[in-house]
Structure of Aspartate aminotransferase family protein:
Amino acid sequence: MNVPVPAASSPGAVRSPASQAPPGTALELDRAHVFHSWSAQGSLQPLTIAGGLGCEVWDDTGRLYLDFSSQLVNINIGHQHPRVVAAIAEQAHLLTTIAPGHANLTRGRAAQLITERAPDGMDKVFFTNGGADANENAMRMARLHTGRSKILSAYRSYHGNTGSAVVATGDWRRIPNEFAHGHAHFFTPYLFRSDFWATTPEEECARALEHLARVVECEGPASIAAILLETVPGTAGVLTPPPGYLAGVREIADKHGILLILDEVMVGFGRTGHWFAFDAHDVRPDLVTFAKGVNSGYVPAGGVIIDAPVAATFDDRVFPGGLTYSGHPLAMAAIVGTLETMADEKIVENARAVGAEHIGPGLRALADAHPVIGEVRGSGVFWALELVADQETRAPIAPAVIGAVKQGCLDRGLLPFVAENRLHVVPPCVVTPAEVARALAVYDEVLTEVEAAL
Ligand code: PLP
C-alpha cells in the first residue's frame, strides 16, 4: 500500500499524491457511477479528496486544503489519527465481523467508555450504523416504553434520512414525507430571527417554552411518547439554546410522562468543548443518540444511550429491533481507539480552549470588520457566521453570495461548511491556534472580496 507521508504545509500547497491513478480518474468514475446525496445529479462537480492527515486533506493532484468542515462535522479527532488507524488494523487482524448477539471484548469496552461519559444510570448502549438509525431506534424505544405514538421535534432540525428520522426532521428534507403520521413540530429558540418577537434570551426562552407547552396541550399530552431535540441544532445554524430552555423542556415532558431524547449526533464527543453538549445545560435526557464524533467516522457507527427505566422495559420483554452490523468490531475498535486517545491527549479540552481563546475572539473581530456578518454564534469547535445582506433588516445574503464564499474559500485552500446563508466554522477538535489563524485570514479575504461585489 502507498501511504502518504505527512509534511508541514500551508493551505493551497501541494503534496505528492498517494494515488496510483492519473489525476481526474476519481472524478470521472464518480460522474459515471456514483449517485450523490441531497443533490440534483446533473450539475455536480465534487472535489476529489485523495488523502488526509490531522486538519488537512489533499486532492488527487496533491493540492492541500485545511478542513474546516470536518467532513459533515464528523471528524473530531482529525484525519488519520495513528492510534485510531492502529486500533482498527489490530482488530481487523483478529476479527472483522460478528453478529450482534455475541459478547465481545471490544464491543463491551466501547459501550463502557461511552456510558462512563453519560449521566449516572445511563449504563446501556444500543449500537447502530449511524445517526439516523440511532434516532429511529430511540423513537421506537420511546414508543414501546410509553405505549404512545407521537413524537414532537423542532422545525429547525435534522435527524437523519430514514423513515421516522426524516419525518422528525423539520427542514426542507422532510417535505416528501409531509403526510406521515405520528409526528408534530414546534419552534425552538432562535433569538436572531425570533419567532416570538423576543428581544432578550430570557424572553426568547420563556416564550419558546410557553409555545411548546401549548403545542403539547393541542397535540394531546397522553398521545406523546417523546420530545426529540438536537441539544444544539447544528445544520439549522448552531443554535445554542438560552440558559434554562432545555431544563424547561424537561419540566414540560415530566409533567406529562413524556420522554426526552437528545440528539447528540453532531454535537457529542467534544464538538462544543464538552463530552456531551448537554453537559453545559441543566438537563438529564432519557435517551441520547450519537454517531459521528464517537469514532470520528473512521468506521460507520452510532447508537442510543439508554436510561435505566427505559432499559428495564426490555428486561423481560423483547426489544423487536436489531441490525446485522450493530456493534461491528471494526467500528467498536475505532470507538475504543478514539475515546481513549481523546481522553489521553485532552482533545475535548483543546476544543474548548481553542474555541474560547482563538475561534470566538477571531470571528468576533471579523464581525467588527465585515458588515456582511450579522451574528457570530457557537462554542468549542462549533460556530456559525450568519451572513446578511443588510444589518438592519437581517435579510439573509442571496444563495449566489454564499456560493461565492464557498468558492473563495476553496480557491484559497480551505474546505468550508456552508448552509443556507451561513458559514459554519467547524474544524476538527484537534485544531491548533496556528490553523485557526490561517482560516481566519482566508475568511477575512473572502468576505472582503464578497462585500466588494455586493
Ligand atoms: N442527527 C443529527 C443532529 C445530524 O447532524 C445528523 C447528520 O448530520 C444525523 C442525525 C444523521 O446522521 P447519519 O447521517 O449518520 O445518519
About this structure: Residues 72, 130-132, 135, 158-160, 230, 234-235, 263, 265-266, 291, 302 surround pyridoxal-5'-phosphate (CB under 6 Å).
